[in-house]
Structures are given as C-alpha cells and as structure tokens.
C-alpha cells in the first residue's frame, strides 16, 4: 500500500491524495513554462498547496490560478510563486525576509529552501491561520509577525534575500536598507492592477541594479511606504 501522509508536510511527497495533481502542476505549469531551478521544483512538488486554502477549494488547489483566502486576499498562482523563488536565487544558508505571508504557502516553500524565514503580514487573521498551518507542518525555521511589512523587520536585518508578495508602487526604502550587500530583492512593482516582477541587486558601495521579468497581478501592498488602506 502507498504510504499516506495527510499531514501535508511533504516529507512523503508521493503519499497524499493530491500528489498526482501536484506532480502535474510541476510538469505542466512550472517546467512547461521554463522554471528550471531543481530545488524550487522539488519544493513545489512536496509542499501540499491544498492545505493552505479552505477545504471547499481543495479540488482547485493545483489549478493554474490564484485562489481567494480572506478579506479579498489571495494565494498566488503556482507559476508566479515558482518564478519569484527562482529569481531570488536562494541558497540553503540564506536568511530571508518575506513581506505578505498570506496563506503561508510561499513561506512553507521558503522554509524548505533556506535556513531561516522571517515573514510579515498586515492582517492578523491571516497571521494566526498561517502560524497554525506552519506549526502543523513542522516548519521550525519560520518566524511570523503581524505588522506593516513596508517597514521590513529591523530586528533581524540584514537579510540575504527579500521577497515581496504584494504589489508596490516602488521599492520601500526600509526593504532596501535591510538587504545585505550582494543581496537580492524580488518585488512586483507597478500600479494596483498590473505590475512587473522586478529583481533588485545590492552591489558593494550601495550601488544597485535592477531588471524586469514579465507581468504579474498581485494584491496591493498596503502600508506606510506603499498604497494607502482603502
Ligand atoms: N505569498 C502568499 C500570497 C500573498 S497575497 C501566499 O502564498 O499565500 C499578499 C499578502 O500581502 C496579503 O495577505 C496581504 O494582506 C499582505 N500585505 C499587503 N500589504 C502588506 C504590508 N504592508 N505588510 C505585510 N503584508 C501585507
């Protein structure tokens, strides 16, 4: 009999009832569109995405789209999550700051890919739900915080990588300041409807380069150094 792992921690990636859907997601949506980083592909084949949405949405959890969480927020489309993770050029030793925990899905992926994850979310209900899920999955290398992520998380700075999972009008100053030299910041920048996925690199002497990597649609980054709350 196949081992069954309903805990969703992915330690037995073949074992849960959605493993087939997840493998297909990786092959068609990720490899099929050019995601190549083997560590990202393995993580996405392992983490049980359905566990991060309401059970009424489980059947759609591996589809090629975002899904609703609460208060108009979303869990991002699998391809966009994979693209951000690949663009971040993650290393197992990294300490990473994530802004916009949301469901905690990307947080769980980061927890498998790097040494330590610090994640900030502005909606307290989402922080609580993500905390419970990540604890269930045994992700011990994650710290969550309720707050305005446009201000970063100064206490544990600097970070090797910063990933912003909400749409910003520009890169918030605090996030630049909290990035290590030679660090990489990945962020959707643009209007509230459409953005470009941007990669910012901090070079020695506080010089910066940035590049654009396609269009995306994220929910707005709402905070002191971004959009105002509606
Ligand atoms: N990567 C997430 C999806 C994030 S959606 C996932 O895998 O589920 C974007 C999230 O950013 C939302 O939950 C929203 O509440 C949050 N957000 C928006 N502005 C924020 C801010 N200033 N600080 C922290 N979180 C913010």
3D architecture notes:
The protein has 230 residues and is an alpha/beta fold. Helices cover 25% and strands 25% of the residues. It has a domain at 66-216: Rossmann fold, CATH 3.40.50.150. It has helices at residues 19-30, 38-46, 78-87, 105-113, 124-136, 173-177, and strands spanning 67-68, 74-75, 95-99, 116-121, 142-146, 159-164, 179-190, 195-203, 207-216. The radius of gyration is 17 Å and the shape is globular. The termini are far apart. Residues 1-14 have low confidence and may be disordered. Bound molecules: S-adenosyl-L-homocysteine. S-adenosyl-L-homocysteine is lined by residues 73-76, 99-100, 102-103, 105-106, 120-123, 126, 148-150, 165-166, 219, 221-223, 226.
Known CATH architecture of one domain: 3-Layer(aba) Sandwich
Gyration radius, in Å: 17 Å
**Order of SSEs:** HHEEHEHEHEEHEEE
| Widest sheet, order of strands | 5-4-3-6-7-8-9
The small-molecule ligands in this entry are: S-adenosyl-L-homocysteine
Using the alpha-carbon principal axes, give the shape: globular
Q: Helical amount among residues, as a percent range?
A: 25-40%
- Percent strand: 15-25%
User: What is the CATH C level class of one domain, in words?
Assistant: Alpha Beta
Can you tell me the CATH superfamily of one domain?
Vaccinia Virus protein VP39
User: Which structural class do the helices and strands define?
Assistant: alpha/beta
**Unreliable parts:** 1-14
Biggest β-sheet, characterized? 7 strands, mixed
